[in-house]
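Handout for the seminar on molecular recognition.
Each group receives one record of this type.
Step one: identify the two inputs.
Step two: read the structure output and locate the region that could contact magnesium ion.
Step three: write two sentences on what you found, then compare them with the reference statements printed after the record.
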Amino acid sequence: MLDVSEASIGRAGKALAEGRLVAFPTETVYGLGANAFDEKAVARIFEAKARPNFDPLIVHIAELSQADRVVSSLPPAARALMERLWPGPLTLILPKRDEVPDLVTSGLPTVALRFPANAVAQDLIRAAGLPIAAPSANPFGYLSPTTADHVAAMLGDKVDFIIDGGPCRIGVESTVLDVTGERPVVLRPGGMPVESIEEVVGKVEILDRSEAKPTSPGQLPSHYAPHTKLYLVPSGGLAYAKPHGKAAALVYDAASKEALAHAHGAPSHFRTIRVLSESGDLLESAARLFSTLHELDSGGFDEIWAERLPELGLGRAVNDRLFKASEKR
Ligand code: TXA
Ligand code: MG
């Protein structure tokens, strides 16, 4: 585990340049980084995560000029978004340069590019002097890490360094936006609200999350999942839930908790009720989502029951993660 001193970051940057794996904080979740041009280093990411090779990685940069090393052309929409919303939790799908290994992009002609808004991530990428390929630093399919401790617990023995930059400010992964077609398409809702993207490029399409497309695995139906069974119900629906065994409820705000506590029957079935944001703040809910799920998942519960959040702003990203974590009935 490394602190965020200049010396530590310099050491980690050097390790990346030498083909090693470094877990580092971003504003969204912790990433597991490797030199994007080093196929062997990238292969180690897949090995560490037990991630299928058909799931492409995001390449991270810390200066706009680094984009030229990775992408072959920039559609006008991409330029506008980069100018207005980068650095930030927005990943753009762009035509790739031949130099980017196929392993990074799963053989796709496109590459996912992101400029994170986190000083530690930026310093690390600059110290390495390279674009860094990095998925979230969790075993494939499991909950994403939002603290260095999450990474240490899940992948501690598989990475060379973990940089502890504290908890992630946003807490859900970046929004993935395909800008290679006529109209931008959101492949994965995330930390950049769709509303902010539409202010720059107008109406975008949002891929239906019930449509599982193996070509864009962010869309894999089962993902971001705790080991404990998770059931997702509509907002306010927990009052009618029929949990079994030792069950935990995950509610949006204080009002939901209050309503559940006063409902007949169901509340007594829940051993605990956890609130994502007392005041009903969508940003706070997103920031606390994964750490709350990590806690519940190690709390010895038989079931977790969650309610949907309002489908706007970061609520979309939280609902997407809860949906993908949930049992399909
Ligand atoms: O916030 C984030 O995006 C974090 C931090 C570490 O930056 N990273 C992250 O990476 O969430 P990962 O690998 O867990 O998710 C990357 C997503 C996947 O859903 C993948 O399918 C999609 O991006 N993706 C990557 N390259 C793609 C491409 N060429 N076309 C379509 N989707 C792509
Ligand atoms: Mg991931």
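Reference statements: The pocket of magnesium ion (ligand 2) is lined by residues 135-136, 144 (CB under 6 Å). The first strand starts at residue 22 and ends at 24.
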